[in-house]
Amino acid sequence: MHPTLSVIIPTKNEQDNIANCCAPFAEALEKGICEVIVVDNFSTDSTLELAASLGVQFYSIGPERSTQRNYGASQAIGQYLLFLDADMILQKETLEELLQRCNSQNPPDAMYIREYRVGKGLKAKARNFERSFYDATCIDGLRLFKRKLFMQIGGYDEALTGTEDWDIDRRVLAVTKNVALSNGLLIHNEKLLSTKKLLEKKAYYASKISDYQKKWGNDKITRKQLGLWYRFVWVFLEKGKWLKVIRHPILFTVMMLERIRIGAVYLKVRNSYK
Q1: Which residues contact 106 (CB under 8 A, 6 or more apart)?
Q2: Do residues 13 and 43 lie in contact, with contact meaning Cβ atoms separated by under 8 Å?
Q3: pTM
Q4: For the segment 114-153, what is each residue's pLDDT rounded down to a tens digit?
Q5: What is the residue range of 121's domain?
Q6: What is the CATH number of the domain that holds 194?
């Protein structure tokens, strides 16, 4: 009997995170309703040794996250594929909800999961506040897929880095509207992510955006994802979300200052690649 869920976790030097990421699935692993697949990009720390000690499947494949994810999917036998990063922790209640919905009479083809970012200080709270506006928008990314659907659309585009989540969203929504938003939370542990590291991460992804633009052009969705109006204004106001802005003016102000800093990095890097 095949498990309901295959959890696929790409890693690179994640010895500080991998055990916490895998922990919520221990009971489901024992019951045979879940499998965990770690696909490592040739770590130089103890990531693979720790994965082996946790009793999960593990492989060594590179060079980027999309390739790792696709390889994990090729080894999976679950009815659904759940893709997590190693610094994420799925809440136990969220796992229970996903399993219940996957086994329901009208299961979704794919699902978004609300992300809650944990970190220290006001800036971390502001990043979490910002993320709460993106749930199930074109800035968000699907996390759970029916394996049959994932294979049908060809998985993640391995030519893209950083924008592969936006890309697969488009291709999923082109063939099905049966997608849902989880009521639970996916904890994203950014305790060690300083503003400097965050900006470096954003700068790296910004340098790869041209590949996404070449594939999809400058259509309405691309303009929303990359344009200043939607990213800096409308996404925080649409569908009644402006009420959150009024309730939390300090968080909103700190968030916007961070958005401006990140936006400046993005524009600088993007212009350098033109």
Answers
A1: none
A2: yes
A3: 0.90
A4: 998 877 778 778 888 998 999 999 999 999 999 999 999 9
A5: 5-272
A6: 3.90.550.10
